[in-house]
Amino acid sequence: MIKLIECPRDAMQGIPKFIDTAIKAAYINQLLEVGFDTIDFGSFVSPKAIPQMRDTAEVLSLLDLHNAKSKLLAIVANVRGAEDAMDFPEIDYLGFPLSVSETFQQRNTNASIAQALTTVEEIQNLCEVKGKTLVTYLSMGFGNPYGDAYSPELVAEFVEKLDQLGVKIISISDTIGVADPTLINSLLSLQIAAFPHIEFGAHLHSKPQEIAEKVRAGVKAGCRRFDGALKGYGGCPMADDELVGNMATEVMIETMELDGLELNLNKLEFGEAMKLANFVFNP
């Protein structure tokens, strides 16, 4: 079964103009009607680092979760953020960005990879105690623009370390859109075969015309968890200056359905979400 993770947090976080809290909540409430597996709805990070997400707790208080099928995921960058997120029983998943690039780890969380791995261990332990699930994102998982060491073998070393910590979900992230279908297929195939007890996801960024082939490469590799954002909005504000958009959810859906995959989404509500996205991101 395919799991689609819709990421309004990722779509919104780099927008300089603050989006009204009520508008954020209305948009996420509409997304909850669609039937996505998970909504990556906000983050508990420093408001100085990501000002757009400073109202995550307020947004959460405005969500209508009655009968919602979707689970909620919040991004955290340190133990303090994880502890803050633990106060909310509505949150199912905590997402942590661990990078295979030392430069990007410093830029993204102001910590070294070694420090970040210690943080992962602490957050994983917190999640086990509090009944939540940690999703670790391996950012720069398909290469980086900084000249840092990279290879599929390096990614495998990180997965091995995360496996030893008990992490059950790892989303390999193409933070700057450099992965081609061949690399996506080979990298995911290798990890899925080597660690069958781990749920692997793909958080890919892409130029619009390359989305379909990247999705198909991931599905062929055995990946069943994909992140996206309506209309491809967003990107990581801590990444390379030339941002590449998120995978457009509507293109992923079209591609998967053309290939005969059942997604169990409410198409009427999805259409309404697309209309609302135009208002939220193009006020």
UniProtKB/TrEMBL annotation:
<dbReference type="GO" id="GO:0004419">
    <property type="term" value="F:hydroxymethylglutaryl-CoA lyase activity"/>
</dbReference>
<keyword id="KW-0479">Metal-binding</keyword>
<dbReference type="InterPro" id="IPR013785">
    <property type="entry name" value="Aldolase_TIM"/>
</dbReference>
<comment type="similarity">
    <text>Belongs to the HMG-CoA lyase family.</text>
</comment>
<keyword id="KW-0456">Lyase</keyword>
<dbReference type="InterPro" id="IPR000891">
    <property type="entry name" value="PYR_CT"/>
</dbReference>
<dbReference type="Pfam" id="PF00682">
    <property type="entry name" value="HMGL-like"/>
</dbReference>
<dbReference type="GO" id="GO:0046951">
    <property type="term" value="P:ketone body biosynthetic process"/>
</dbReference>
<dbReference type="InterPro" id="IPR043594">
    <property type="entry name" value="HMGL"/>
</dbReference>
<dbReference type="GO" id="GO:0006552">
    <property type="term" value="P:L-leucine catabolic process"/>
</dbReference>
<dbReference type="GO" id="GO:0046872">
    <property type="term" value="F:metal ion binding"/>
</dbReference>
<feature type="domain" description="Pyruvate carboxyltransferase">
    <location>
        <begin position="1"/>
        <end position="269"/>
    </location>
</feature>
<protein>
    <submittedName>
        <fullName>Hydroxymethylglutaryl-CoA lyase</fullName>
    </submittedName>
</protein>
